[in-house]
Fold each of these.
Amino acid sequence: GAVVSQHPSRVICKSGTSVKIECRSLDFQATTMFWYRQFPKQSLMLMATSNEGSKATYEQGVEKDKFLINHASLTLSTLTVTSAHPEDSSFYICSATKRGTGAEAFFGQGTRLTVV
Amino acid sequence: GIQVEQSPPDLILQEGANSTLRCNFSDSVNNLQWFHQNPWGQLINLFYIPSGTKQNGRLSATTVATERYSLLYISSSQTTDSGVYFCAVERGFGNEKLTFGTGTRLTIIP
């Protein structure tokens, strides 16, 4: 299967600081990547769609100024959590879709963010 | 938006048992995938199955798109099968978001 790499896997930061998470598709190009958030014992909820070369599309209720997304190339999207607060602590996971005989999504390893 | 319900929400089985997990969705879809989320949070792709039946070792899946459901079968369960199983659907062809189901938490007891 395709490989999507996400870093860091775990980060602890102080309130008020910013954290950048990277998502890379290692063996295919992705014009679109997706960022999800997962709270404990819950399902994944889409935060935003990252589009290469254009602005991200955010889901309702997601603050675009807090969660900055940059899709700089066909293999890299970044999510920056700005001025993080404890309520931003969560599991963030990205995905990219590989097109072949179908359109299968592959996920990164996820990033567990803890804001103290 | 599309609704995705999974059942049962929790399942506890003895090692060696078989299980069937169900995914119901409320509208037509062009993409359906099954994932296993391991204890570290990683989503492992199990099946890309918008329709039909596929098998991979002890696992198999069937999607009946016209009736809007999919089934995941796990045979001869092992403790490493423990975790949360998600189905996810998409109405488009890879350029739209995946909507995840509610998940089934499977615990295999030695």
Amino acid sequence: GAVVSQHPSRVICKSGTSVKIECRSLDFQATTMFWYRQFPKQSLMLMATSNEGSKATYEQGVEKDKFLINHASLTLSTLTVTSAHPEDSSFYICSASRGVTEAFFGQGTRLTVV
Amino acid sequence: GQNIDQPTEMTATEGAIVQINCTYQTSGFNGLFWYQQHAGEAPTFLSYNVLDGLEEKGRFSSFLSRSKGYSYLLLKELQMKDSASYLCAPMDSNYQLIWGAGTKLIIKP
């Protein structure tokens, strides 16, 4: 199956700093990449959808200036959490689409803001 | 609105069979996915149904009835490693996956 690599898997940062999370499709070109966050025992919540070379589409309630998404190539998307606060601590997961009905997930990034 | 309904939690015995039901309402429909998610990990793909009927893949099978807005995941010969959450995720007319909270499956020896 297709492989999506997400890095880092865990990160601890100080409040007020920024954190960048990378999502790479290793063996296919991803037409679309999705970013989710998941709080403990809750469902995946879609944050934004990004297509290569265009601006990301953010879901309602997600601050685009706080969660910066860059989709520079068909194999790489990045999510930057700017000026992180403890309430941003969560599990962030990316998925990459190969065609409209195939979505493969990265390993996830556990972000802890102290 | 869009809605997913799955049981919150189920318990089954090692070696047995369990069926996890899912009913859904979406704006349009482009198939339904089942994912497995172990605690602290990202979801992994199990199955995709777009036509009515049963798809069998090893110990796991998935069924879809589009007219009823209903799907189930059938797990046979349960193993302890099958303890996880199982997420039913239909895809709407915009090809967006709609996520519920999933079903936590507990396997007992």
